[in-house]
Structures
1.
Amino acid sequence: MKRILILSLFVAVVSGCSPLKDANHSSSVTASGTIQKLGMTTFQYGTHLLKADNKTYALKSGSINLDTYLDKKVTIKGKKVAGYPVDGGPELIDVTLVKF
């Protein structure tokens, strides 16, 4: 009986931790494109856009001045912000690194 209880607790802990690990891993984003200032949009989030070849991302950053990279071809790294996209807009990325 004790073995069944310990085995059940082990399975519960392992099952509960695996999705968290996968969720954190899948929230990282690396994308290349041109950074543009966010103008009039149908969605109300982000400060800039990254126009990639076939996708657009809304960007924000608390540590990097994205205006420095306006109209330049860059590669960004960051994390997807939970709860986005909304209102038919693009995914929101919190940018942590920008490379030329």
Note: The two ends are 61 Å apart (CA to CA).
2.
Amino acid sequence: MLLATILLLGALPQSDALARSAANLPEMVASDANTDAKDSGAARELPSMPKPKVSIDAEGDGVTANVAGAEAVQPPRVALPVQPVKAAYTRPRETRGQRVGWYALAVTGHGAAAFDAYSTRLALSGNYGTESNPLLRPFAHSGALYAATQVSPVVMDFIGKRMMVSENRWVRRMWWLPQAAGSGFSIAAGVHNMCVVK
């Protein structure tokens, strides 16, 4: 682990000033030894620092360059206008009105399916007809018909909810159609069954 650390640190690039000071280290040590012999209390001479290329004016109002022939560099005085950031893409969301409408259509669809199941059971118990839907025929002569008829409204509720937040604008506008159509078919079937019974 120590060897890996040494190899890693040895592979790092060194700055120019650090490389120069490391190259002049033997000369500095020799001169330090001579200086220490002469005056042990004197501070050691540090490597010279390069002069800054940019310095502040005496008045402090601007920046001037120390480069020969260069003019004063001034920062721009005008503030740049703030550019609006492009908004991140978000999926469409449902509004409060859509949510209320969705719940109203869900209650209507489930109620219409229950009415359809009741009228079907009433018609079948009086031998006025048979169940014409092949998917509901196995449940026609039991109480499971009430639960089986609730599957279609659940599917229509799910489709309506997905359409409400769809990427397509036209699909978002028609989100209510599956629930309304399912409710309409169930009410029509229930009314038909009640007419057959009477």
Note: The first strand starts at residue 54 and ends at 56.
3.
Amino acid sequence: MNDEMRQKILKLLDEHRIMTVATLRPDGWPQATTVGYVNEGLTLYFLCGLDSQKARNIARDDRISLTIDHDTPDLMGITGLSMAARAKPVTDRAEAEKVLRLLPLRYPDAPPAPIEMPKWDEVRLFRVTPVVISVLDYSKGFGHTDLVTC
């Protein structure tokens, strides 16, 4: 991936804070849910309940798809990211605690009371490593996508 494309992807990741994650249910149907995320470069992190369907799905098959985008009143202003990625549980306490400190920083406009984050062992944290990234940019033409292999 060239530096220009990397910077475009990082800009989109940094401008947003929620994503839709699709996992595979045991019956083969995809399950899509919205989660908050934080990223360090191209590595993304999200959390969910210890025994959530999402966590169980990923334990069976770590392949996920995700989208990051925003609403826009201009059809040709649609931009976003779609990724095929691998989600691995974060088992290192220091890494988990760092992620839990970073997540509330994505919400600086939250009410003055601090966001009470769960303890690292009360949630399932996942590290998401992209395999293929589609960068959607309608300003380059309807449905224009640049495909990047990581």
Note: The chain is about 20% helix and 40% strand.
